[in-house]
Design a protein that fits this description.
There is one protein chain. With 312 residues, this protein is of the alpha/beta class. Helices cover 40% and strands 21% of the residues. The strands form three sheets. Strands 3, 4, 5, 6, 9, 10 and 11 form a seven-stranded mixed sheet that branches. Strand 7, helix 9 and strand 8 form a beta-alpha-beta unit. Helix 1 packs across helix 3 and helix 6 packs across helix 11. The chain is elongated, with a radius of gyration of 24 Å. It starts with 5 loop residues before the first helix and ends in a 17-residue tail after the last helix. 30% of the residues are buried. The C terminus is likely disordered.
């Protein structure tokens, strides 16, 4: 290892990923000459050329490609080494990177993270939102430490622990006269304000509505839970949302919610790499999500079955 530097390897990895010395320098908040010097020192140590320019893009040579294949495992080993040392320090320090869907980030995680931050103020927590497929890939690649995602997830690299069921409900403006339980036949009688195409909520709602056998078309398609609730509250239609998103008093214009028949919902789970070192901070986040999920679990809820799956 003499003569090697993790900074040199990181500079090389950034240049290859971004295809540019200037972009790599900007990412690291360094000057372009500083990045170039890191690459030069690494090439001198190895005795081979690692980067070549093809047009305006910096590309790895054959030797560079061989080195690139080892950067991920090296980065993982360094992270594991640092994680292993954290418990020997005083207090709860370190960083935990969480990935989850937007709805869970807005309506579920804040209370969990506020409690953890109150108990462990020196623990750094970051959150990234996205669909399940992207979050699972980032956990696999160690770009995230833990994911809180919608099942199904299939990966040999991940430990997958179901946490809670989140039933879906129909929502209407507060002055609507609706049954205690809503069927697909009843819901399609209203103008529908739905999530945009591609979201997991939309896929599940569409599949559930097909039971009634008639064509339907939403009058509005939006990407925001809050926007959907405001429009429904204004009397412009009805919608189907995860129950965790329907919090009394949260919406400026009031809405009412009703359970669905047949019932519909999603299962949420924690995902972590099987070989991940569970630091004190990561374990605190894992336990906090699990406890909050169990406290709100609807364990007796049987959901409508569909062959369709989605990624959020």
């Amino acid at each position: 290892m003499r003569g090697f530097s993790l900074d040199q390897l990181q500079a090389f990895a950034d240049v290859v990923e971004l295809g540019s010395f200037s972009a790599a320098a900007e990412r690291r908040n360094l000057s372009q000459p500083a990045i170039s010097q890191q690459i030069k020192l690494l090439e001198q140590r190895l005795g081979v050329r690692l980067i070549e320019r093809i047009g305006k893009r910096a590309m790895p040579t054959a030797a560079g490609q061989a080195l690139q294949a080892h950067i991920g495992p090296i980065d993982q080993s360094v992270r594991n080494a640092l994680d292993a040392v954290v418990p020997f320090g005083t207090g709860m320090r370190g960083r935990v990177r969480i990935g989850c869907g937007a709805t869970a980030c807005i309506y579920f995680l804040p209370a969990v993270l506020a409690d953890i931050q109150h108990r462990f103020p020196e623990l750094e927590i970051s959150v990234k939102t996205g669909n399940t497929a992207d979050m699972a890939r980032m956990v696999e690649d160690n770009d995230l430490d833990i994911g809180f995602v919608t099942l199904p997830v299939t990966s040999r690299a991940l430990d997958i622990t179901p946490v809670m069921k989140d039933p879906f409900v129909a929502i209407f403006s507060a002055d609507s006269d609706v049954a205690d339980v809503v069927t697909p036949q009843q819901l399609v009688a209203y103008p529908l304000v739905f999530f945009e195409q591609g979201s997991n909520t939309r896929v599940l709602a569409d599949t559930w509505l097909r039971i009634q056998g008639k064509a339907y078309r939403p009058v509005m398609e939006l990407g925001s839970v809050e926007a959907i609730k405001e429009l429904v509250g204004a009397g412009l239609g009805a919608s189907v949302l995860p129950s965790m998103a329907v919090i009394h008093g949260r919406t400026r214009l009031p809405v009412i919610s009703r359970p669905l028949s047949p019932s519909l919902g999603r299962d949420l789970a924690i995902i972590i790499r099987r070989d991940k070192t569970l630091t004190q901070g990561l374990r605190a986040v894992q336990n906090g999500i699990f406890a909050a999920g169990r406290n709100s679990d609807n364990s007796d809820h049987g959901y409508f079955n569909s062959d369709d799956t989605a990624t959020d």
